[in-house]
Amino acid sequence: MSLHQPITAASRITRSMSVQDALAWAFLTEKAVLDFDQYGAHEFDRPGVDTIWIMAERHKVGVNVDGGGTSDPHPDAQIIAAAVEALPDALGGRKMATQIAELARARSAPDWGQGERLAITPCGWDWDNDQGCFVAGVSRTGSLWVWRDRHRNKREHKGDVCAISYTGTASMAAAKRRNYLAWCGALLDLWAVLRRDGVLDTITITDVLPPLAPWREVGGMVMSQGKVRFP
Fold this sequence. Notes:
- By secondary structure, this protein is of the alpha+beta class.
- The chain folds into 2 domains: 15-43 and 70-115 and 170-211, no CATH class; 119-167, no CATH class.
- It has helices spanning 19-29, 51-60, 75-85, 93-105, 170-194, and strands spanning 15-17, 119-122, 125-128, 133-136, 144-148, 154-158, 164-167, 203-205, 217-218, 221-224, 227-229.
- Strand 10 (221-224) and strand 11 form a beta hairpin.
């Protein structure tokens, strides 16, 4: 190579990801974390202050010194985590941010009640030594039964009651679907933020978004206004 030959800069390599894949990459692969500083983790971070003083102050309050053999997440992963932290309260704030991070680590989406059916379950369980398994728990809080036996003696007995609860009700399904729609709205906001020019350096966010109402799809068909139509 000649000394006068111009050096050409290498082209930047970018990857295309959906917003869900980018979140999973940031929180699962790169191990990015949310830091709302609720416990004063950055209390002693002061610009222009000597590092030794910071370590000494942390030692006073029992905070471990930074280190341990792990590297920082990728800068783009930290930017994605910061965008999740900055979710406005109108979109769920810190509670939604925490849910997004947990679901991203599990490569999952919120439960919107898929496969859930109306059912009745006991409120408690007891161990039955004879059967060797758990059985529905009962308590003697029922009605008082009063009768006379064949000898005309008065007898009393309290009935056994098994407390039950309902699952899969319409209100439960509606609550799960509202949470799913709120999650979709938060991801849409993150999608708009992360797609801006210059926000991410090595990742390009695609147009792919999670389905807005997956409960409308039933067995390859789509429910629309009470009617079934094929997509």
